[in-house]
From TrEMBL:
Domain Tyrosine-protein phosphatase per the UniProt entry, residue ranges: 2-141
Gene3D superfamilies: Protein tyrosine phosphatase superfamily
Parts forming coiled coils: none
PROSITE patterns on file: TYR_PHOSPHATASE_1, TYR_PHOSPHATASE_2, TYR_PHOSPHATASE_DUAL
Record domain Tyrosine specific protein phosphatases: where: 63-122
Reactions this protein catalyses: O-phospho-L-seryl-[protein] + H2O = L-seryl-[protein] + phosphate; O-phospho-L-threonyl-[protein] + H2O = L-threonyl-[protein] + phosphate
InterPro entries: Atypical_DUSP_subfamB (IPR020420), Dual-sp_phosphatase_cat-dom (IPR000340), Dual_spec_Phospatases (IPR052103), Prot-tyrosine_phosphatase-like (IPR029021), Tyr_Pase_AS (IPR016130), Tyr_Pase_dom (IPR000387), TYR_PHOSPHATASE_DUAL_dom (IPR020422)
Species assigned in the record: Ictalurus punctatus
Family that this chain belongs to: Belongs to the protein-tyrosine phosphatase family. Non-receptor class dual specificity subfamily.
Protein name: Dual specificity protein phosphatase 14 isoform X1
Amino acid sequence: MSLSQITPSLFLGGADAPLNRALMTRKGITLIVNATLSHSCPTYPGVECVRVAVPDLPTARLSEHFDRVGARIHNNRAGGTLVHCAAGMSRSPALIMAYLMKYKGVTLCQAHHWVRQSRPSIRLNSGFWDQLLDYEKRLYGKNTVKVAAPLEVPKTPKMVPRYTLRACPSSPRLGWFRR
């Protein structure tokens, strides 16, 4: 049960997290954002489930859901929110990063750093990166992240990061959530 706390009321996890009713109760989860195709939403009293049926493919249009999901997270005053996908590595972090940009006023670079500090295993696919870059440009008129070209993958099966990000300045808004 891997559950990462992003803000005091926002959590990121994989498909197993919402299945643990005791964990959902303990964290005060009242909204589950399910960004999977095949995992069902559990039904718990007082818990709403929002479905984002998008595959984890670079061609999938996850950005079509950024505003709707961000608004739903922002307006969840009843308790905590869990955003999850199958592994909590690509779709759900991308949705959370879009939310942080729009509602917490941070750049994409800062949002990525924020989420990665809580969940180091995130690995967004290239299409979601492109969509987040477009979203940041739309929100702020510029980009703070430059995505490098994919690295050539060695023939031996070895975990190599496919993309690199440049450093970004920290945001004074991030400090508020870390207290």
